[in-house]
Structure formats: structure tokens, C-alpha cells
Write the C-alpha cells for this entry.
Amino acid sequence: MEKLLHYTWKHRMLPLGSLHTTDGREIEVIDPGLYNLTDSGPDFFNAKVKVDGILWAGNVEMHCRASDWYRHRHDSDPAYDNVVLHVVEQADMDVETSSGRTLTAAELSVPEQLRRNYEALLTSDRYPPCYSIIPTLASLKVHSWMSTLQTERLEQKTHAMEERVKVMNGSWEDGYFATLAHNFGFSINGEAFETWVRQMPMQAVAHHRDDLFQVEAMFIGQAGLLERVDKKYASEYKYLQAKFHLEPMDGSMWKYLRTRPQNFAHVRLMQLAKMYHERRTGLSELLACETIDDISKLYGIKGSKLDLLVINTAAPTIFAYGRSHGKEYLCDRAFDLWESLRPEDNRIIRMWKECGLEVKNAGDTQALIQLKNEYCDRKECIRCRFGHEYLSKK
């Protein structure tokens, strides 16, 4: 398996004796290079190796069999012309680059203990498969990995925020409102809220911001949910629709089945309309918030609902804006907000607690959700630091 070969090279798990080329020249690995996490290009960039005492610098490509070079069509791809070493488990043939150069090759075997540990992770009927190693991990290693995971999680949410800004023609104000709206719908109606906000002409709404009734009529009317509310809203929306040439979305997109009345789409839209009317949905107002209490006062909510909006809306927006505008203090504030919240309680977090991990705040729980979703579920144990400890055990 190529992944294990990559791991062996990256961590310099080389033979006790020296590594040699297939034609007998001695190889000294000075720098294995930078691992390529994308699907295109050589496996390791900017590696440095000495072959018979001569320093070579360039890229390294790896395969289980040398002939995979041709199976993957690297021989016709100029991106592989600067490969200086072809590392394989089985050198079944010589290979050439698109420029006609024959590659220097070396055979490297995956250590048997590493192979056994990896197979144990893939075949374990316990979840997560590395559960046995977790209680033995040093607290510093756990803290370091959790911090990295937390950053990954926040950056993932930041990417979604940045994509909304693009959709909103570069407007951070509208991108933030779209993010807030999406998370007002929770998971069940998040996509419907996303569709709604993209069809909502915010400049038109702004003309009537001081009139709550008109804001409510426009919000509900554009959502295609007038039949869910008092008839008085229909006539008001008809007037606004003609004034601004509005086209409502398909109301059938909203989901009501197995939804509590307080979370019905039209109820949430009314709440959002009130916040908008009271000028509590502006980006500048959010960026002025320094604590959880500040955000609670801004949104006018407390408890678990507030926690969810801080986790999914406030902190990612503050982080995204801070990173985009070079304001490091805002990025730091986003982390502080997560770490000021109580830990979430769900099956993912309970699973990790049962493995022996200490969970102190929402930053920890977001890190563990990232760990499960992006590493455990995808069997990416090789890229996980917990998985690395398991793979390294004797």
C-alpha cells in the first residue's frame, strides 16, 4: 500500500543498513522532502539525498511497483520530470520521464510491525480503533494535536464563510448575514435558509428596516411561507413585491416534519426579522463583541441556542474577517470564544470521553468532531497524531 510506503519514507523508517539504488549505489537521506497532500504531482517535494556522496535535490515519487509509473501515466506528464528518486517496494522494471531520462530507483520495504499495526487499525471492530493507545498519551501531545484540530475545524467553517462572501459579490456584511441565516435553520433547514438569503434583496429590505412589519412581510413572503402566517402579511408582501419586482422561493423547500414548533421555519424567520430590524445582525456590531456575554446581549439569546450560534456563526465570522484583513487579535478572539463555552454533549464527544480524553470546553469538542469526521471516518490514521502513536508502538 502506497500510503504505508509514504509513511515509512516520511518518518525515515529506513533499513538498519544503508539504503541503496537498484544498481548498488549508497543513498543517504538528508531531507525526505515536503509531503504532497494533494492528488497531483510527485509525492514529496524538495527532497535532498546523497547518492554515492553526491547531493541530489528534487522530488521523490513512490509506488508499490515500479511499473505503476506507467500505469499512472507519469511517463507522459512533465510535472514528474524533476523527480530525482523513484522509491518502490518492488523494482520490476526501469522507468523513464517524459523527457526520456531513466530514473534512479531504490527499493524500500515497509517494516512488518508498521504493517501489522496499520492492519489492526483498519480491521478493529472498536471505534475509534486507536482507543487502547489514548490513555497512554502524554498530555502535551494530546493538547498539541487538539489545538491543531481546533484550528482545522475553525478554518473549515471559515472557508464556508468566505464562499458566502464571494456569492454575495464580496460583501462581508451580506456574507455574515447569510452565515447567520444558515445557522438559524440548524441542519434541517440550513440549505433552505441559504437559498432564501441569496434571493433576498438586502438593499431593498434596508429601505424598510425601521418598519418591523414590512421586514417580516418581506422575509416571510420571499420564503414562500405566507400561508403559515397571518393573512395581513400577504397584502403587505404583495405591495413590496410589486415595488421591488420580487420573486419568492419555492416554499416546499422548507422542512417541518419532526421539527419542534419553536424551530419552525417561519418562526425562525420572524426572529431573524426582529434582530435585523433592531440592528443586531450587523458585522460591525459582532466585531465589537469581545466576550460571550457581549454576543448574548447582541443576539438577545442565552443557553444552548447561543452556544450553537457562537460555535457556527460568531467565532468563524470573526476569525475569517480577522484573517482576511490581517487583524490577528480577531483570530485570537475567535479561539477564546470557543474556549469560553461549555463543552458540547453528543455521541461523538461521549465516545471520546469513554476513550479517556479530557474535554474542557467547546474548543475541545469541536476539535474532536474534526478528528472523527476528517480522520477516523476517512481511515486517515496515517495523518493522525493519535494514529502515529499507535503505528509506532512495538
